[in-house]
Automatic annotation (TrEMBL):
Lineage: Bacteria, Pseudomonadati, Pseudomonadota, Gammaproteobacteria, Moraxellales
Domain of life, source organism: Bacteria
A Pfam short name: Abhydrolase_1
Keyword Iron listed: no
Keywords from the named record: Hydrolase
Signal peptide: none
SUPFAM superfamilies for this protein: alpha/beta-Hydrolases
Protein name: Alpha/beta hydrolase
Species name: Psychrobacter alimentarius
Length: 317
């Protein structure tokens, strides 16, 4: 098992381990801290190491395992082998969990997951059960993506159809360029479309004015900068988006079996998943409570960083 290290102060012991998952892939997992093992799963487009500011103060009590999903972060060069990326991620995470439980000699561990990472956990519960998870923190994610006759709480709520049509248009435009490895080789107009949609998604994920201002600064690409922008994950993002649109993800059937303690952390101003429909999921779970942050959108750590840290700390204790 290979190990890499990140340059952090010595009192923050950090390493990256590589765990063998399906098809022989060595999946990178960032590990930091000493103590009880905890796993956290990141969001779409996120690098698992972006959790570090929130967990560094807790590394004296806990050891955090931060897997990088295929195509993102330290795993950006690892390809998907299935169109259903959520199921493939769940298969990978199952093997990561088994590795942690075996090496740390524990029967189960707490898991916190946000957005796409939380959707992966709903898939994990469906196929692998809950015996390896002692408690679960679900951060602003519904187990249902598409609106249906009995469910209007899917991704983007009543704006779903319009936004899904926008995403489909971008996917259709990028398909002829699926063989192009470098983002810099795409037509400029297509690069602008791709980054504009990503920017829209990011802006919809936050609620507070300061968060929106930060997103606008971080995602701004003038023509000159965009011309030379080497977007290494654009193909992977488009592939995931295509699966989101095509596969009717609905994991409600597993809720009755998730008997472990669950905390559902909900952004009251989430534009991705309607808080009222998220609360319906909480009521469907046998042993769940919800915490609603009145000023937060979907991206809770960005909108409410201090509250997020306190809630995470309480969840672990």
């Amino acid at each position: 098992m290979k190990i890499n290290r990140l340059s952090l102060p010595t009192h923050y012991p950090f390493k990256t381990i590589y765990i063998a998952v399906a098809d022989g892939t060595q999946l990178p997992v960032s590990v930091i801290g000493n103590g009880q093992p905890i796993m956290m799963l990141h969001a779409y487009g996120m690098d698992a190491r972006e959790f570090l500011p929130f967990i560094l103060p807790l590394t004296g009590q806990y050891q955090f395992y931060l897997p990088h999903f295929r195509g993102f972060g330290a795993a950006k060069d690892i390809k998907l082998t299935q169109f259903d990326f959520v199921r493939e991620y769940a298969d990978d995470i199952n093997l990561v969990i088994e590795h942690i439980c075996l090496t740390r000699k524990v029967e189960s561990l707490p898991i916190a997951a946000i957005s796409m990472g939380a959707l992966v956990m709903w898939s994990y519960f469906t196929y692998f059960g809950v015996s390896r998870v002692s408690r679960y923190l679900n951060i602003d994610q519904s187990p249902v993506i598409h609106n249906q006759s009995d469910w209007d709480g899917g991704l983007f709520g009543d704006r779903q159809q319009a936004l899904f049509e926008t995403f489909q248009e971008i996917i259709d435009k990028t398909l002829p360029y699926a063989h192009v490895e470098r983002f810099t080789h795409l037509p400029f107009s297509l690069k602008r479309c791709v980054t504009d949609v990503e920017r829209l998604f990011s802006l919809l994920s936050v609620s507070r004015p300061r968060s929106k201002a930060l997103v606008k600064i971080l995602t701004h690409q003038n023509d000159h900068k965009l011309a030379f922008y080497d977007h290494s994950t654009w193909q992977h993002k488009m592939r995931c988006l295509q699966a989101y649109l095509a596969i009717p993800y609905d994991f409600r059937s597993v809720t009755a079996d998730v008997t472990i303690p669950v905390v559902s952390l909900i952004g009251a101003k989430s534009e991705l998943y309607d808080p009222k429909w998220q609360q319906k999921i909480t009521k469907m779970l046998p042993n769940a409570t919800d915490i609603i942050l009145p000023h937060s959108g979907h991206a809770v750590p960005i909108d409410e960083p201090i509250r997020f840290f306190k809630i995470l700390k309480e969840f672990l204790q």
